[in-house]
Structure formats: structure tokens, C-alpha cells
């Protein structure tokens, strides 16, 4: 083993440029993959945070005619009774401005509703409404304007614009508005349908929902209502990972090419070693160790470069056009799991690519070469 390691290291040092290029190819491929995954993680986390600015972590629909009290739970930060309905919002023409009209989902919140969405700065009052930024733009409304909400049953309620909110998720910003619970009850005749709940950890919504539901509530976690979005983001990350992993595969083929050339170049030496009593296993181990050294070194270099690039992008994030995206900067979210599987898969790719020169070294016949 020590002899094989000595020869493998000597071979790599004899061609430092080729060895360095092969090692750098693996390292750059690994680094690019790690940075891309970290940026994707940051984008996904940013989208989830934006969505949850105006979307409940957990909804508990009441199964009883009268809304029962909600049990306490250590994970619950805020809770409020709610009712939601579709309505047509209209703004009458005034002050030289034409009228505005659009459909919206009105979410009526009862006591404690302001604490559900602290980032929106809601201060709900009877007869007031908070509009999504895109919805407010579509209506041509400003703070203080008078709006009318019309229900499917032709009930009409006058509202005053108290403010707007912007999450960055266009579906929410263009189609949602917050009012007090009494407004929805007057408009649609609905009573409180259940509770909207804010949690310390949104990802535990399903677990908490099952604990609180009992026989009085039907739980609905945000992961269920946003399943399509989460699945699309997960698929996007998988496809991106596969495409960029091809860079590592190309780098692995570069390592295989280097080792094949070494086998061809060292064929007389291989034959001489075999004639002096070295076994096929010893000879093969030399080239296997070369592949291991290049693979481990490339993966280590890639992890270091990837980590440093991620730190740099975290300090100086990439800017995004605010008109097109809900984020003005692309965040970075490094995860240990990504580093581990990228390192393992890249090392495996290099080792598999090393099998070709290894098999060629095994087939060298000392008698034929020395003749």
C-alpha cells in the first residue's frame, strides 16, 4: 500500500500542470454546483417567507355550528377567528380619476388578527380595508379613498382604504384584502369559519394542526394549500442540480483521460514492475490511488471555493429587478446536506471514471511489452 501510494504521488507530481488542471476541473464543477444549490435554496426560502407574510401558517376550520375555543399550544404565536369571501370591489370616480373595479378575496379577522401578520402592519378597524399593492394599483385607489364591496348576494358594504401591503407574491398582492370580521359577516352572512394561526416554526404546521384539531376542527397547513408551488420549486432545484452535475461529470472524464494517458505512458514501467514480482493488484492500486487523490483533492477544493463564494454572495448579494421579482437581492442559504451529497456524488463520479484506466492497467502483459 505504501509503495503504491508513493508511485501514485510521484506520477502526479511528474505532470503538475495536467494534474492541477484535472483537480481544478473537479473543484470548479463542485463549487458551481454548491453555489447554484445555495442560491436556489435562498430563492425558495425567500418565496416562502414572502408568501407567509400574508398567508396563515395554519387554518383550523370549525366542524361545529358555534365556534369553539382553541386549545393552547406552545408553538402558537398568534391566533384569530376569521371568515373569507369573494367580493367585487369598486371605487367610484372622483377628483378627475375614473372609476376602478376588481375582484378580491376579503379575509375578515377577529380579535388578535393584527398579530397574525406582523410584517404587514395591519390595524384593522370596522369599515376599513387593507389592499394588496397590485390590487390597490388595479383599483387606482389611495389611502383614505372610499370603496364599495359587492357580494354574490348583492349585499353592499362601504369601506375606507386604510393602507396597502406588499408580499412580493403576485397572487396575494393582486387578489387579497384584509378587513375586520364584522365586515365579512355583514357582506356575506358568514360567521367565523375557524381560526387562522401563526406558529413559531411554519414547517411544523401539519404536526401542530393534528395536535389542535381534535374533533372540533379540520386542520389545513400552508404546505397543503401551497403544495403546487413547493413541488414546482423542488423540481426546479432537482433539474438545476442534474444539469450542473454534468459539469462535474465532464471534469471526471478529464480525470479519466489523464489516467489513461498515464497508463499508456507508463506501460513499459508497468511491465517491468510486473516482471519484478509486483502483482496486478499493486499495479492497479497505483492508478486507483491517483484517481482517489484527484477526486478527494478536487472535492475538497470545490467545497472550499463553494463556501467562500457563498460567503461572498451573502455579503454582496446579486441584485434583482424589483419590478419583476419579489426580492431585490438574491439570498444565499447554505445547507450541510447539499455539501454532503454533492461531495459524495462528485467523488463517486471521479472514482467511476477511474475504472477505465484501471482496467487498461490490469490488461498490460509484461511478456509482450518487454519483448
TrEMBL record:
Entry superkingdom: Bacteria
Subcellular location per the Swiss-Prot or TrEMBL entry: Cell membrane
InterPro entries: ABC3_permease_C (IPR003838), Lipoprotein-release_system (IPR051447)
Pfam families (alphabetical): FtsX
Homology family: Belongs to the ABC-4 integral membrane protein family. LolC/E subfamily.
Protein name, per record: ABC transporter permease
Membrane-related topology note: Multi-pass membrane protein
Major place of residence: membrane
UniProt keyword annotations, A-Z: Cell membrane, Membrane, Transmembrane, Transmembrane helix
Domain ABC3 transporter permease C-terminal: 242-366
Entry's transmembrane regions: 21-44, 239-260, 281-314, 339-358
Amino acid at each position: 500500500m505504501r509503495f503504491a501510494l508513493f508511485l501514485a504521488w510521484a506520477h502526479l507530481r511528474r505532470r503538475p500542470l495536467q494534474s492541477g488542471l484535472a483537480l481544478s476541473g473537479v473543484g470548479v464543477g463542485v463549487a458551481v454546483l454548491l453555489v447554484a444549490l445555495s442560491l436556489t435554496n435562498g430563492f425558495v426560502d425567500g418565496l416562502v417567507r414572502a408568501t407567509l407574510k400574508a398567508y396563515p401558517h395554519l387554518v383550523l376550520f370549525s366542524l361545529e355550528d358555534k365556534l369553539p375555543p382553541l386549545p393552547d399550544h406552545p408553538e402558537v404565536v398568534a391566533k384569530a377567528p376569521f371568515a373569507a369571501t369573494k367580493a367585487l370591489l369598486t371605487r367610484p370616480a372622483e377628483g378627475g380619476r375614473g372609476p376602478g373595479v376588481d375582484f378580491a378575496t376579503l379575509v375578515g379577522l377577529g380579535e388578535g388578527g393584527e398579530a397574525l401578520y406582523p410584517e404587514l402592519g395591519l390595524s384593522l378597524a370596522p369599515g376599513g380595508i387593507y389592499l394588496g399593492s397590485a390590487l390597490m394599483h388595479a383599483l387606482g385607489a389611495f389611502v383614505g379613498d372610499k370603496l364599495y364591496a359587492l357580494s354574490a348576494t348583492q349585499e353592499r358594504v362601504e369601506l375606507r382604504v386604510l393602507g396597502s401591503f406588499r408580499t412580493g407574491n403576485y397572487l396575494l398582492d393582486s387578489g387579497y384584502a384584509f378587513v375586520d370580521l364584522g365586515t365579512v359577516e355583514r357582506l356575506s352572512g358568514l360567521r367565523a369559519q375557524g381560526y387562522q394561526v401563526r406558529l413559531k416554526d411554519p414547517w411544523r404546521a401539519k404536526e401542530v394542526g393534528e395536535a389542535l384539531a381534535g374533533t372540533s376542527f379540520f386542520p389545513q397547513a400552508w404546505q397543503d394549500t401551497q403544495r403546487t408551488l413547493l413541488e414546482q420549486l423542488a423540481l426546479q432545484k432537482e433539474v438545476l442540480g442534474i444539469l450542473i452535475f454534468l459539469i462535474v461529470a465532464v471534469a471526471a472524464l478529464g480525470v479519466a483521460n489523464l489516467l489513461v494517458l498515464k497508463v499508456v505512458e507508463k506501460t513499459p514501467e508497468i511491465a517491468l514492475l510486473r516482471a519484478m514480482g509486483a502483482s496486478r493488484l499493486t499495479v492497479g492500486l497505483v492508478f486507483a490511488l491517483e484517481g482517489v487523490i484527484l477526486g478527494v483533492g478536487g472535492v475538497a477544493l470545490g467545497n472550499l471555493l463553494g463556501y467562500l463564494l457563498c460567503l461572498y454572495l451573502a455579503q454582496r448579494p446579486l441584485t434583482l429587478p424589483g419590478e419583476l421579482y419579489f426580492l431585490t437581492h438574491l439570498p444565499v442559504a447554505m445547507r450541510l446536506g447539499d455539501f454532503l451529497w454533492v461531495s459524495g456524488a462528485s467523488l463517486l463520479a471521479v472514482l467511476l471514471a477511474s475504472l477505465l484506466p484501471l482496467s487498461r492497467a490490469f490488461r498490460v502483459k509484461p511478456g509482450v511489452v518487454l519483448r
